[in-house]
Write a structure and sequence with these properties.
six-stranded mixed β-sheet, Rossmann fold, 23% helix, elongated, binds magnesium ion, binds guanosine-5'-triphosphate, Spo0b-associated Gtp-binding Protein, Chain: A, GMP Synthetase, Chain A, domain 3, 8 helices, alpha/beta, 3 domains
Length: 422
């Protein structure tokens, strides 16, 4: 209903290349290998920012990049990791890649790595062994993940306006926010919820005006359960009652009962009662209405306003802002210790598969094996030799032979190509 969408491109940083170098030592032409590893590319993190309430920052399609990792240095110097980039979004944002929901930042997860930076390549110091004293290969850094993503915000209002039809909900929203809802002197004017941004003393929050509720709303009468769904996640409720009502306490009880009987008990939310249309009744009638509501509502605070004359609006908004602030703090405390989950795209990284792509052409797939191939610098004989060693060690070579691969056949791994056993 309150949907805001934006498309972004995210590109995590590339891993730094490993370094190929040898120690300089006096009186020796060449010392041992000392090329350091490249740093990791910067991840892209999506993070909830409670100061945001729309996706307007991403309206004009944007590219968000993680920094590349630095290359390894001589003397086994590890390259610096690339800085991560953060996509700040309002709470309630969903991140989609095509038809796949990647993450829903509505409640639990407050931040997630959505694109992983590329691994840094190993420097040649890494490949030294008792049999290989002077390895002449160093890995390339891997590309980071890159995706085109759609952000979708089902906006969660901080404050929900509830009440019987004609109580003055839309009128209130229209005078306190930028929203322009339809207003009329008959019940059920509002058919779909409206949303407005309210600013009080430079503090912003979102207010939703939902259609009027009637007895039985919680069970679906007059689409009431649909409307109540919109205030399920709001932190605070303003409960509007027409001061002219013949029985304001009964009005209060009807709505309170429906809030309580909904699938989840909404009556327990922080609430403020608002007697509306103050200027239409005399002081005596107003007092009587207040007294009656107080008796029915107990400790819930009552404010008296007129949306027409603007009487009482500022104190009401300040009180609402305080409740929103308190709710936001509670919420953040609850989430403060949540760990950062990473989206797992592949469950079995060691798994690989060999498939025939055509006459004498093969493809090897698998997360780890593809990673090795991507990090292989094909200009270095030692690097290519190492990739072949890995194919042998992992059993890929045996499988190729079993499937009938011959000398000189072409093997594709990721974007790379090598010929077999030449
Ligand atoms: N005199 C006066 N009339 C008001 C005031 N606030 C709202 N009204 C009138 O009350 C009527 C109903 O107002 P709405 O804001 O449409 O009421 P609502 O609660 O949104 O009604 P539904 O959408 O049908 O549930 C309209 O004729 C408004 O002009 C007020 O402060 N003073
Ligand atoms: Mg309305």
């Amino acid at each position: 209903m309150f949907a805001d969408t934006a498309t972004i491109e995210v590109k995590a940083g590339k891993g730094g290349d490993g370094r190929l170098s040898f120690r300089h030592e006096k009186y020796r032409a060449m010392g041992g290998p000392d090329g350091g590893d490249g740093g990791r590319g910067g991840d892209i993190i999506v993070r909830v920012d409670h100061n945001l309430n729309t996706l307007s920052a991403y309206r004009n399609s944007r590219i968000i990049r993680g920094k590349d990792g630095e290359a390894g240095g001589g003397n086994r110097m590890h390259g610096a990791n690339g800085e991560e980039a953060v996509v700040r979004v309002p709470q309630g944002t969903q991140v989609w890649e095509g038809e796949r929901l990647i993450i829903d930042l509505s409640e639990g997860d407050q931040e997630t790595i959505i694109a992983k930076g590329g691994r840094g390549g190993f420097g040649n110091a890494h490949f030294k062994s008792s049999t290989r004293q002077a390895p002449r290969n160093a890995e390339l850094g891997e590309r980071g993940d890159a995706y085109q993503l759609r952000l979708e915000l089902k906006m969660v209002a901080d404050v929900g306006l509830v009440g019987l039809p004609n109580a003055g909900k839309s009128t209130l929203l229209s005078v306190i926010s930028n929203a322009k809802p339809e207003i009329a002197d008959y019940p059920f004017t509002t058919l779909v919820p409206n949303l407005g941004v309210v600013d009080v003393d430079e503090y912003g929050f979102l207010v939703a005006d939902i259609p009027g509720l009637i007895e039985g709303a919680s069970q679906g009468k007059g689409l009431g359960d649909e409307f109540l769904r919109h205030i399920e996640r709001t932190a605070v409720l303003l409960h509007l009652i027409d001061a002219r009502s013949e029985d304001p306490a009964a009005d209060y009880n009807v709505i309170q009962g429906e809030l309580r009987d909904y699938q989840v008990d909404l009556s327990a939310k922080p609430q403020i009662i608002v007697l509306t249309k103050q200027e239409t009744v005399d002081a005596e009638q107003l007092k009587a209405a207040e007294k009656a509501v107080k008796k029915a509502a107990g400790k819930i605070p009552i404010f008296v306003i007129s949306a027409q004359t603007h009487a009482g609006l500022l104190p009401l908004l300040r009180a609402a802002a305080e409740l929103v602030k308190a709710a936001r703090i509670r919420h953040e405390e609850e989430l403060a210790n949540a760990a950062v989950p990473v989206i797992d795209t592949v469950d079995q990284p060691d798994f690989w598969r060999v498939t025939a792509e055509g006459e004498g052409v093969w493809r090897v797939t698998g997360e780890h094996i593809q990673g090795f191939a991507r990090r292989t610098n094909f200009e270095q004989d030692d690097a290519v030799r190492r990739l072949r060693d890995i194919l042998v060690k992992t059993g890929v070579a045996r499988e190729l032979r079993r499937q009938g691969a011959q000398d000189g056949d072409i093997i594709h791994i990721d974007d790379t190509e090598l010929s077999w056993l030449d």
